[in-house]
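WARN retry 2 of 3 for item q-0093 after timeout on previous attempt; input resubmitted unchanged.
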Amino acid sequence: MSHKLLSELKIDKVGTFQNRVVMSAMTRGFADKNHCATPEILEYYEKRAKNDVGLIITEGIIVHPSGDGYNNVPHLSTNEQMLSWKKIVDSVHKYKTKIYAQLWHCGRISHSDYTNGFDLISSTNNPAKGTNRQNQKPFGTPRALRLDEMDSLYNMFNHSAELALKAGFDGVEIHMGHGYLVDQFLDNNINDRQDKYGGTVENRIRFAIELLKSLIKKIGHDKIMIRISPSRIMGGLYEWPDKTTMLEKLLKEFDLSGLRQLDISCANSDYFETSGKIIKEAKKFWPHLLIGGASLTIEEAENEINLGYLDMVTWGRAILANPDFVKLIEKKLPLKKFNDTMRESLI
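OK item q-0093 returned
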C-alpha cells in the first residue's frame, strides 16, 4: 500500500485533504444548452468523491462567453450556472472530498461558432495553426487585446471566481497553460506584441501577474491555484523558448504576489520528459504547494512525494477510467486502462 500518497494533507484556509490523490481537470462537454452543469455531471463527480479522491479539479469552466471554444462545455458567469454547480459541490462535500473550479478562457484556441458574437481575443492577431477539432474548421483569427481592455478580462475571471466561492467550491484553479489565453501571453512563440505586454520576459508575464493580483484583491490568496505547462508533448516536445528564465521570474512573482498553490501540467505527456523536469527546476524557487503527475504509476507517484518534488499527484484519464481509483490502489488491485470510447459518456 502507498503510504504518503494516501496520507492526509492540510492546507491553510482550505482544510484537510483526506489523501494526496487529485482528479485533474479534463474537458468533457456534457453541459446543457445554457452551459449549466447537469445531473449527469453531478453523478460523474459524485462517483469519484464516494471513492475517496482527495481533491477534484473540475473540467475547465468558461469564465465568459467570449472565452468559449468547445462544444457543450460549462460556463460560470451567471447565477443560474452558479446554482447548477452548487448542487455538485454540496454532493462532493458529503464524502469529505475537496473540489476546485478550474476557470478557463480559450483565447485564440476557438472559432466564432463558439463566442456568441464576441470577438476572438488573444495576445496576437495571428490565428492558431491547424483545425479546431470541435467543428473541423480552421481556428478563427483573433484580435490582439488593447491596453484598455485588460481590466475587462481580469474582471471576467474575478466574477467567475466570486461565483465559484458562492457555490461553495473550496478553491479555484486558474488555467494559464496548454496554449489558452494566458499562455498566449507567456509564450514567446505566440506573443508578438510590441507594447508592455510583449517582448521581454518581464513584459510577457505581466498579464498573468496582473490577473493574479486582481483575483487576490477580489477573493484573497488562500483559495487560488494556478496551472502552467512550460513543457508538454504536442506533435513532439513543445516548450516555452526561454522556459528557464521565464519559469524563475514567473514563479518568483507568483510567490511575491501571495500565491501558494501551483499545478505544473504536462497535458497528458510523459511526466519525466516534460513537467517532471520543470518541477525539479521550479523547486529551487517555489517553496509552496506543488501538484503534478498525470502519467505516473502509483510507485512513481509515491517516490516523487517522498523525494519532496510533489505534494499531491494528479491523474486524469486513469481516474476517468476508474471512478474507484483510490479504492483500487488501496487494495492493490489492477486499474482499468483508458480508451477513447470513454470520452463519449460520463462514466
